[in-house]
Amino acid sequence: MPAHLNPLLACIRRRLLRLTPAAVIIVALFIVIVVIGVSARALRAGKAAIEKKDAPAPRQAPPPHNNGNYIVPSRLWTPLRGVLNALGDRLEKPGKERLTIIGSLTRRNAASSAPFRLITELPNRLRLEEGVGPQRRVIGYDDNGEWAIGKNFEDADMEAIESLAFDTPERLLFGQMEGLAYRFLGERFRLDDGATKNYRGGFYDIYQVTDQIKIGSEIRERNKLFYVNSDTLLPERVRYQMARAGAKVDVEVIAASWQKVNGQQTPGLITRLENGKPVLTLKATSVAIGPRLPDGLFNNPQ
Predict the structure, then answer these.
(1) Residues 8-21: pLDDT tens digits?
(2) At a CB cut-off of 8 Å and minimum separation 6, what does 220 contact?
(3) How far apart are CA 264 and CA 99, in angstroms?
(4) Is CATH 2.50.20.10 correct for 80-290?
């Protein structure tokens, strides 16, 4: 019996000596009921304390799926995880965010090619240096906008940035992480209409992506088709339409001459075609992959 009830029981005994036998029985029954109730509550409290002590600690909320800088494979469609594996691990973990390509660049109607250096840094930073000496010019892009050194920012610069920053394998994967609208159109498509005998071209799995692209003062919505090689799982082509001066222009960006650098697949040749004609070609002679650097290369110098 709980110790704190002892004084109460002693007082009750003294008063019982003055009561009639019938009153004594009634009081006794009341005491029994009270004691049983108090004991039951104490038992339940003790049991609850034991259960609380033995209960597992509450699970902490999982960390955010993605901080925006890297791909989380579990959040990709299963077929796109194969694309991620084919490219390498630079999109998944720190240490290989920066890609530097050096080579020759050819623009539409240019008499000759010019040297270039293209530097990109995950997830969406870009710097393109073109030419040397007085003819050298630089364009850059990140979340804060675009900029140019050497002359004013032109439409051709916007289209170059779109091809080099948005028509890319990285965009195919990061776009799904950002919640863009995706649709899988099917697998093993041919590039012809199916009538070519002894077809020797590639076979492609095609993804339709509705992208939101902010370059300059406007947000461009593009319905793009990403062609992933069905055998190598490398994204090799992007096709879409754009409007220029009231006319539709068929755009195709081709990534070719793939090579493995530091365990990562990178294209050695990037070509932008408009209505079937090349308007921008970058041919790599050197490719390097390294970590993100706080060197300000992507900052607007103005």
Answers:
(1) 455 555 554 555 66
(2) 162, 212, 213, 214, 242
(3) 10
(4) yes
